[in-house]
Amino acid sequence: MADDRDITIHSRVVFWLKIILPLFALAILSTLFLLSRRIDTDAALPYARVDVEALARDPRLTAPEYLAVTEDGAAVSFTARTARTGQGDNDEARAEDLVAVYETPGGLRIDIRAREGEIDRPAGRMRLSGDVEIVTSTGYRMLTAGLDSALDRTNLRSDGEVQAEAPYGQITAGQMEIRHEDVEKPGYLLDFKTDVKLIYEPQK
């Protein structure tokens, strides 16, 4: 008889636990939902709408890259932080924080940095502006306000005065040009023009 009573009590306990425990769990979940932070979708939507509308008005590319090979065999790469394509019939692309690299078959490397740039594909030209820096693997570092470059050949020309640090001293000139004169002959010419001044520093 004692065993029967124990079984009966145990069955009743199990029965009530099956009812009470799920109800207790539901109560806890309800409390969590009530205490959770409500997301204000009405406040969030205007910000998303502004971003989408701005992107539609001013489409841009993030971290674009352009690769090409010039007629004289130099590998050219252009990268930028952002770029905007032209609107309508305008095929010019505008870039910010632009970096260009020329690598010639003979081993010459030219690194260029500028705050802004425009690439005109139909004209085959690239125009850089804003603290343009040109560094060559032969030891020249040049600064100028603007730079005009061909896309189909190695031809770089400063837009105005240039200041240069050379292996043998300091150079200032009204213009600078890097070009490959003869496709059939190796070698590139760095030409300083107009009011050229040299401060010779033999220790360099």
Concise synopsis of the structure shown:
This protein has 204 residues and is of the alpha+beta class. The chain has two helices and 14 strands. Strands 1, 2, 3, 4, 5, 6, 7, 8, 9, 10, 11, 12, 13 and 14 form a 14-stranded antiparallel β-sheet that branches.
Keywords:
14-stranded antiparallel β-sheet; elongated; lipopolysaccharide transport protein A fold; 44% strand; 204 residues; 25% helix; alpha+beta; single chain
Structure commentary:
- The N and C termini lie far apart (111 Å).
- It is built from 2 helices and 14 strands; from the N terminus they run H-H-E-E-E-E-E-E-E-E-E-E-E-E-E-E.
- The protein has 204 residues and is an alpha+beta fold.
- The model has no long low-confidence stretch (mean pLDDT 78).
- Helix content is 25%, strand content 44%.
- Strands 1, 2, 3, 4, 5, 6, 7, 8, 9, 10, 11, 12, 13 and 14 form a 14-stranded antiparallel beta sheet that branches.
- The longest helix is centred in the first third of the chain and has 34 residues, at 2-35.
- It has a domain at 61-200: Sandwich (lipopolysaccharide transport protein A fold).
- The chain crosses the membrane at residues 15-35.
